[in-house]
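User: Design a sequence. Structure:
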């Protein structure tokens, strides 16, 4: 079902990690993640590894709004967080967006692929 109101402000980082440092990067990212998720405007963040591109990670974080994210982005704690992860990076990019809809499966959905197909 689509959300009736505007969703959160979303930030997506594409991070290229130096070859051979992927496992250490994942460990450090988890160790320093509290510096992001403890901010009162953060709604959560996710780390995903690309299955198509070697050494590429995507970090997605949701915020209550853009102004509060920008407040965090210029904070001392964020700078320290970036400095901890910087030795692993060989490149990256940031994309910001506003979530306009959110669909969920809801309770009572089909248990198997076959049941899902039969509901057409």
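Assistant: Done.
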């Amino acid at each position: 079902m689509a959300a009736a109101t505007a969703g959160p402000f979303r930030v997506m980082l594409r991070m290229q990690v130096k070859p051979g440092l992927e496992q250490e990067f994942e460990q450090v990212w988890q160790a320093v993640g509290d510096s992001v998720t403890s901010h009162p405007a953060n709604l959560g963040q996710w780390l995903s590894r690309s299955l198509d591109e070697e050494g590429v990670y995507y970090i997605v974080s949701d915020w209550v709004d853009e102004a509060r994210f920008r407040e965090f982005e210029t904070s001392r704690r964020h700078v320290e967080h970036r400095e901890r992860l910087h030795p692993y990076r060989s490149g990256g990019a940031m994309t910001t967006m506003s979530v306009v809809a959110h669909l969920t499966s809801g309770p009572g959905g089909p248990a198997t692929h076959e049941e899902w197909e039969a509901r057409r």
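The chain has one domain: 9-100. The longest helix spans residues 22-32.
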